[in-house]
Amino acid sequence: MSNSKPAAGLSExxxxxxxxxxxxxEAYRTLRTNLEFASLDTAVRTxxxxxxxxxxGKSTTLANLAVTMAQAEKRVILVDCDLRRPCLHKLFxxxxxxxxxxxxxxxxxxxxPPLQETGIPGLRLLPSGPLPPRPSDLxxxxxxxxxIASLVERSDIVLFDAxxxxxxxxxxxxxxxxxxxxxxxxxxxxxxxxxxMAISMLExxxxxxxxxxxNNVDLDTGLNRYYSTEGSEW
Length: 234
What we know:
Number of domains: 1
Radius of gyration: 17 Å
Mean pLDDT: 89
Distance between the termini: 27 Å
Low-confidence stretches: 1-7, 225-234
Number of strands: 7
CATH architecture: 3-Layer(aba) Sandwich
CATH class: Alpha Beta
CATH superfamily: P-loop containing nucleotide triphosphate hydrolases
Shape: globular
Order of helices and strands: HHEHEHHEEHHEHEHEH
Helix content: 25-40%
Strand content: 5-15%
Number of helices: 10
């Protein structure tokens, strides 16, 4: 594995890099472990992460999960499939062009994907690329299936960031092309009926829901004290 340092443009939202010993970072590592055990019977090589609605933390959750997987010495490709409001390139401080849409329309890039180095060993990013007028049509196309196959050849796992599933059809479309789906909901923000609607929409396309993440939960003060003093006696 490379020993290159994280890029200077990394966002503070990547707590698994900025504060790796925090309880939040440990929660992401627990999520990584739980996903590994959830896929023991059937290997998950491709996974979509979505949420019922906007502003529920799916992209931040996915980015930190990707970091922890790379830290476990997996070859991870993170793909920004939110072709309406992409943000992963901002989290990692890289260019958004070229990217996924470039691969879909340019055959030459299929054998040499425009992957961006994140500065995190083992983790590469395929940003969204130029935003198209009809995102769901591109994601539904057979070219998208070829893109996925090309990325799988170059990684241990490919993680896709999709738009909120209730807002647009993109996540449901992607869910039919991958091994599993992770649903992110936000405590105090996601409405119960919206969470139920999201699950129903995924079930209608026969998506394999691997699990759900409850985001923005208040941390136990005892845990905060434990992690703030961890390692002080060494």
